[in-house]
Design a protein that fits this description.
This protein is an alpha/beta fold and 197 residues long. It is built from 7 helices and 7 strands. The protein has one domain: Rossmann fold (3-Layer(aba) Sandwich), CATH 3.40.50.1470.
Length: 197
């Protein structure tokens, strides 16, 4: 039986300038999960982020939004993993994904960081790629028919119709949280991926 998830990290960039940008899809999801678990975030300097602690079936579950900017996300995730003695397999990282269209999401364990700076830094901090990833589709400027550079695209808010699809994805991702906290990854994947029309 795989280890249940004990830490969920949502990736984004801190501050009001970035709040509604595509790169912050991980933050958006974490806010919803915190609501579902009836917990709120507090700024925890020693963990370089906003941290919420929930109890689920008697176990502590941590939520974190790193406040280090995307490319230093590992500082926060690594500090929490060391303090709470968590294995990479007990960590789920929710992040924006260029290779999936808005409305699509994928759950997987391990693999490459595919150039995502947040994942790259977390992999370096944990010394392993074996953590779980919840990939929230934001589309790629080319797949959406835009001429923007990728770096510019991720730091802009989605267009209205894309935002609606991303919001649907976040609702589907929220719905699988109980399963991943139980270690029921097959069930979580089937439930999440069945909506990737």
């Amino acid at each position: 039986m795989p280890d249940p998830i004990r830490l969920i990290a949502g990736l984004g960039n801190p501050g009001p300038d970035y709040e509604r940008t595509r790169h912050n899809a991980g933050f958006w999801l974490l806010d919803q999960i915190a609501d579902d678990l009836r917990v709120s975030f507090a700024n925890e300097k020693q963990f370089f982020g906003h941290v919420a602690k929930a109890r689920v079936a008697g176990e502590i579950v941590l939520l974190v939004k790193p406040m280090t900017y995307m490319n230093r996300s590992g500082q926060s995730v690594g500090a929490l993993a060391r303090f709470y003695k968590l294995a990479p397999e007990q960590i789920l990282v929710a992040h924006d994904e260029l290779d999936l269209l808005p409305g699509q999401a994928k759950l997987k364990q391990g693999g490459s960081h595919a150039g995502h700076n947040g994942l790259k830094d977390i992999q370096a901090a944990l010394g392993s790629p074996a953590f779980w990833r919840l990939r929230l589709g934001i589309g790629h400027p080319r797949s959406l028919g835009l001429a923007q550079q990728v770096v510019d695209f991720v730091l802009h808010p989605p267009r209205k119709e894309e935002q609606a699809r991303i919001d649907e994805t976040i609702d589907r991702a929220r719905a699988i949280v109980p399963a991943v906290l139980d270690g029921e990854f097959e069930q979580a994947m089937q439930q999440l991926h069945s909506g990737n029309a």
